[in-house]
Write a structure and sequence with these properties.
Radius of gyration: 23 Å
Oligomer: single chain
CATH architecture of one domain: Roll
Structural class: alpha+beta
CATH class of one domain: Alpha Beta
Strand order of the largest sheet: 14-18-13-17-15-16
Number of helices: 14
CATH superfamily of one domain: Dipeptide-binding Protein, Domain 3
Helix content: 10-25%
Strand content: 15-25%
Shape: globular
Largest sheet: 6 strands, mixed
């Protein structure tokens, strides 16, 4: 799910100003329909309120921002053809690309950019003043520049050197307020229809500014779970199926499907609600970390295709991840029992784990956790619920004891870390540490990359010492792609980019 993180370096950010045109020319004509299997019922198509990663991977094809990620994780200009950041990092100025149309035929103007960013920042007159994109809470004004009407200036209340990656935020037509049911963006595909529990259909945007997609239509077919998706794959009714486990991938015919893989920035977490009485004690959380064997869990759930995690960030984030934390915990039943005794639970306790039933890897992880934790007296009761209920009760209302989920993020370290601020709406584990809060606040005010790196590593180490939760693995991303297709790219983040996909020619 989204909660949906971005590595930004100067060289990456300035990369290929021609991205929008050069990398987008997949073809001038389109043909055929491609079906993508998904296991999550969409919650919304509104880019400003979307939470679930599964929704994001659909609407990535509909909306675009001033900037956009490519399949290598590089952040490039998109609806902005270039940009400037003031030396003080409190003014961001974007030059809006011309010759772009929304999917309703309306021409993109700088006023649409102003409206969209004001909406995201909670600055519109009819808003409640609360930023819909939390990173934009420090935006003071969004306005056209006086000297050049093609430029949009974003002025902040205080410097923020971490803000650039959040300008992937969708740009919509000014005054457009029906995005949740009838999305309209500038992307290569436009919304056609949504049939509950069946599918979401997108059609090619023939007027796309980067050139028309190579396929006519994309159908995101909703499957009950991964096993249902596997049956669809075996019958040939699905062309692409992401987020496969290795054992399922191995059951597919090599003649029918290519299996593509890539490392990702996903973090599978055994999330421990820090406000639950037993789990509020860091010794209990530490005991849980010592009671489990991550390698066994990865073997059971991913057939070994995963990287063990000991912190809230994946090694896929490169230098921002602190490799000194690797192997922090190794299974030690005696130590786990001793810690539980110190915490006042010598005989263990009962704990409920609430898991979304549509994600088999998380259900299987919960089953394996129950088996391993029983050795230290923690009796894990598994409760499976549907995705919409999980989003509402667990993520939004934080009405749970523990859960298993994969956290996703933009490909930026700040997006990974900011969720653990005490006041973050994404902090669904209810983690709270004053020192971490201060360090997170310091990051946007820190211009030097080396100093930023030190702060990120400090935060990761403090959270590891706090045993904030139990981080399990970064599962290898595996995607089954029909051998009839080519051009599909596996992103290091939770994205299904259908623009480059096309049918092979004889």
């Amino acid at each position: 799910m989204r909660s949906f993180s971005k590595i930004i370096t100067a060289s990456v950010l300035i990369a290929s100003m021609a991205f929008g045109l050069a990398s987008c020319k997949s073809g001038s004509t389109s043909s055929g329909s491609v079906t993508v299997g998904i296991t999550q019922e969409p919650g919304t198509f509104d880019p400003f309120t979307v939470v679930a990663a599964g929704d994001q991977e659909i609407i990535f094809n509909i909306y675009e921002g001033l900037l956009k990620y490519d399949s290598k994780g590089n952040l490039n200009p998109c609806l902005a053809k270039d940009y400037e950041i003031s030396d003080s990092a409190d003014v961001y100025t974007f030059t809006v690309r011309d010759g772009v149309k929304f999917q309703n035929g309306q021409e993109l103007t700088p006023n649409d950019v102003v409206y969209s960013l004001q909406k995201a920042a909670g600055l519109l007159p009819d808003s409640d003043g609360k930023a819909l994109v939390s990173a934009f809470a420090k935006v003071k004004t969004v306005e056209l520049t006086k000297d050049d009407p093609s430029k949009v200036r974003v002025t902040l209340k205080e410097p923020d050197s971490e803000l650039l990656s959040f300008f992937t935020c969708a740009i919509v037509p000014a005054e457009y307020d029906t995005s949740s049911k009838d999305p309209c963006g500038t992307g290569p595909f436009k919304f056609e229809n949504y049939s509950i529990s069946q599918n979401v259909t997108l059609s090619a945007n023939k007027d796309y500014w980067g050139g028309a997609p190579a396929i006519d239509k994309v159908v995101f077919k909703i499957c009950a779970d991964m096993d249902a998706g596997l049956l669809e794959l075996q019958s040939g009714t699905i062309d692409i199926f992401p987020h496969l486990t290795k054992d399922r991938a191995d059951q597919l015919s090599a003649d029918a499907y290519n299996i593509l893989d890539n490392s990702s920035n996903m973090v599978q977490i055994f999330a421990l609600n820090n406000k639950v009485e037993e789990l509020s004690n860091p010794k209990v959380r530490e005991a849980i970390n010592y009671a489990i064997d991550r390698s066994d869990i990865i073997k059971v759930t991913m057939d070994g295709a995963g990287v063990a995690l000991y912190a809230p960030m994946s090694p896929a984030m490169g230098k921002w991840y602190d490799s000194s934390l690797d192997g922090k915990y190794s299974k030690d039943i005696d130590k786990a029992k001793s810690l539980l005794a110190e915490a006042g639970y010598p005989d263990g306790f009962d704990l409920k784990v609430t898991v979304p039933s549509s994600y088999l890897v998380h259900v299987n992880t919960a089953v394996e956790l129950a088996s391993e934790l029983s050795a230290v007296g923690i009796k894990l009761k598994i409760e499976q619920i549907d995705w919409a209920t999980w989003l509402d009760e667990v993520y939004s209302k934080r009405n749970y004891e523990s859960t298993v989920i994969c956290l996703t993020s933009d490909y930026a370290p700040y997006d990974v870390i900011q969720r653990y601020a005490s006041d973050s709406k994404d902090n669904f584990i209810n983690y709270s540490n004053k020192e971490v809060d201060e360090l997170i606040k310091k990051l946007p005010l820190t211009p030097g990359e080396d100093e930023k790196l030190t702060i990120y590593h400090q935060i990761l180490n403090i959270m590891a010492e706090d045993n904030a939760s139990c981080y399990i693995q970064d599962p290898q991303e595996m995607v089954a792609v029909s051998t009839k297709l080519e051009g599909y790219n596996v992103y290091p983040m939770y994205i299904q980019d259908m623009y480059t996909v096309k049918f092979k020619t004889a």
